[in-house]
Design goal:
Helix content is 40%, strand content 7%. By secondary structure, the chain is of the alpha/beta class. The radius of gyration is 17 Å and the shape is globular.
Length: 188
Amino acid sequence: MSALNLLKEQGKIRAIGVSNFSHAQLAEAASYGRIDSLQPPYSLFWRQVEQDALPYCIENNISILAYSSLAQGLLTGKFALGHKFDPTDNRAKNKLFQGENFERAQQALEKLCPIALLHNCTLAQLALAWLIAQPQTNAIVGGRYPKQALDNALAAQIKLSAAQLAEIDAIRRIVTDNLDDSQIMWNC
C-alpha cells in the first residue's frame, strides 16, 4: 500500500483499487491508506458481495466495479437448457451453468422476459440496468463485437422503478436461494 499511496500522492494514479477482497481484507488495507474501489464478481444471479463487502463499501464510499456482470453470458439468455461448454471454457466449471442451478437460471430468465419487453430491451440490458441501480455499483462488461458493446451501453438509459427492482429481486431468488454461501463462483 505504501507504494500505491506514494504513486497517488505523486499524481501518477488517481485511485487505488483491489479485487476480490472481503470486508475484513478491505478494512485491513484501509488501515494503510484509502481504498477507492473493489472489483468483485457481482450480477443479478451472483450476489455474495452483498453479504460481506458491499455494506462496508457503502459505509466507506468505495466504488464497486462489478466483473462478470452478465454472469459470463448467462444473463443474456443465449444459452439454452442442455448447452454444453467445451471443457476448456471456464463456464464449464461455473456453478451457475451446472445442473439444477442452470435449470433455475432458465426459469428466472423466462420470468424476466416480460420486464425486458416492457422496457424494449434485451435480457442483458435489463440485468445491467439492475446492477447499475445498486448502491456504489458500476458494471464491467465485455463484448466480442462492437454491436455488443453498443447494446450493453444502452443499459444506462433504462430506468427501473422501485417496484420493478423489487420484482427483479424476487425473480433472482429462484437462482440465488439455492446457491451455497461460497464466494467462489467456479468448481475446481
